[in-house]
Amino acid sequence: MKPEVLVMAASPSADVMAQLEQRFDCHHLWQQPREAQAAWLQNVAPGVRGVLTTGAIGINAALLAQLPKIEIVAVNGIGTDAVDLAATRARGIAVTNTPGVLTDDVADLALTLLLSAARRLPALDFYVRTGAWEAGKPVAPTRALRGKVCGVFGFGRIGQAIAARAQAFGMQVQYFQPRAIDGVTVPRAASLLALAQASDYLVVAAPGGAATQHAVNAEVLAALGPQGTLVNIARGSLVDEEALITALRGRTLGMAALDVFADEPRVPVALRELDNVVLTPHIGSLTVETRHAMGQLVVDNLSAHFSGKPLLTPVA
């Protein structure tokens, strides 16, 4: 008998999906109409031993309570803030995620967003498409990156990869997170506020959760200032969205480039209407190569667990 696994979301990799079907008895929640999911889940829940979810979807205590045989939650993503870790710990349920394999693509997007904001690429694209260039309308100059300060909030794998890329563009880099990182040459600011005060570009790469909820608040945005740019590729919860909208509207913050939002996929109309914002739909890891690697790591963690082998990437 193959282990029964509840699949909360599909992988873009056809090979990963094929492996899941081959190795496990899969119950695909994502294939069920929303109005039918509760009744469907009642039928399959008693046999489920594993759950495949994503960082955005996670799993809450109520769903865990419906799964009497659950042994493992495999997260296709880095973030576990949407997973009720207190509930999993209380029941001895293993949790895994997919660190490392998405670092480069997420860091690449962070610099893409930073460059798009600095050089006003969306506005310039619009300028050409609408015939403004042909009509001889004036275009304002943008700003160079070299010599500017890139502050990185959160200095794990992704934060350090962002720093390396920013340095390659001739930027100075500082970072902040509560615990200093040993063995790095990048200077650490005394606080997030101090980092914002020192930065031309503030890139958010810290984990989500209660500890970082609205860490980037009105005071931090004001410190970044009217020439400053906020880039967020972490979690929408880290930024006070209302304060951000107010700062962008009032031009007390120069620009924002955002891949994540507080209530995805619902992005406030106020943000969408602003011309000093670059928006992407939470696609930091959305490349063919990385999404396959993430899905493969999920499959490998599930296989290791049900074979009695050590997990590849357990969450502490």
Automatic annotation (TrEMBL):
<dbReference type="GO" id="GO:0030267">
    <property type="term" value="F:glyoxylate reductase (NADPH) activity"/>
</dbReference>
<dbReference type="GO" id="GO:0016618">
    <property type="term" value="F:hydroxypyruvate reductase [NAD(P)H] activity"/>
</dbReference>
<keyword id="KW-0521">NADP</keyword>
<feature type="domain" description="D-isomer specific 2-hydroxyacid dehydrogenase catalytic">
    <location>
        <begin position="13"/>
        <end position="315"/>
    </location>
</feature>
<protein>
    <submittedName>
        <fullName>Lactate dehydrogenase</fullName>
    </submittedName>
</protein>
<comment type="similarity">
    <text>Belongs to the D-isomer specific 2-hydroxyacid dehydrogenase family.</text>
</comment>
<dbReference type="InterPro" id="IPR050223">
    <property type="entry name" value="D-isomer_2-hydroxyacid_DH"/>
</dbReference>
<dbReference type="InterPro" id="IPR006139">
    <property type="entry name" value="D-isomer_2_OHA_DH_cat_dom"/>
</dbReference>
<dbReference type="Pfam" id="PF02826">
    <property type="entry name" value="2-Hacid_dh_C"/>
</dbReference>
<keyword id="KW-0560">Oxidoreductase</keyword>
<keyword id="KW-0520">NAD</keyword>
<dbReference type="InterPro" id="IPR036291">
    <property type="entry name" value="NAD(P)-bd_dom_sf"/>
</dbReference>
<dbReference type="InterPro" id="IPR006140">
    <property type="entry name" value="D-isomer_DH_NAD-bd"/>
</dbReference>
<dbReference type="GO" id="GO:0051287">
    <property type="term" value="F:NAD binding"/>
</dbReference>
<dbReference type="GO" id="GO:0005829">
    <property type="term" value="C:cytosol"/>
</dbReference>
<dbReference type="Pfam" id="PF00389">
    <property type="entry name" value="2-Hacid_dh"/>
</dbReference>
<feature type="domain" description="D-isomer specific 2-hydroxyacid dehydrogenase NAD-binding">
    <location>
        <begin position="111"/>
        <end position="284"/>
    </location>
</feature>
